[in-house]
Amino acid sequence: MTITLAKCQQNDVKQLQAISIETFNDTFKDQNSPDNIEAYLARAFTEEQLKKELANQSSAFYFIAVNEEVAGYLKVNVDEAQSEKMGDEALEIERIYIRRNYQGQGLGKYLMDKAIELATAQNKKSIWLGVWEKNEPAIGFYKKLGFVQTGTHSFYMGDEEQIDWMMTKVLG
Question: What pTM value is reported for the model?
Fold first, then answer.
């Protein structure tokens, strides 16, 4: 198995959109109403929205590929691109999305290691992320990697307010 990582560019937007919709649906559609899923996807993963995120100098997307097939991606944010004001010394992992048929192969850990590498290179003191309080497999994964819950914030799935745990890992 050959794993490669490549920074996403503007011309990757269609592939980024397709993987975003596929992975989000696979993960969350069974726990949410179809209307709320549709409303979220229509807001979060339009070409226009993803192009805007790709153009932000304080955000970065990385495709992970297995044997040259894109298996998922990582999105990180620093500075004003963070979804919560966590300061200049933090890096946010906004998304680790792995396509269903590639889960359980260590790709999430690989992307987490990349996020830590990026944070360290930028002299960040911590990394953090938000995870839905009902996503127990993800919470367990993050705890295993040394993240602790440091707060909560609201996430809107369509018109439904959901609670995300904010989890942080101190680096160093």
Answer: 0.94
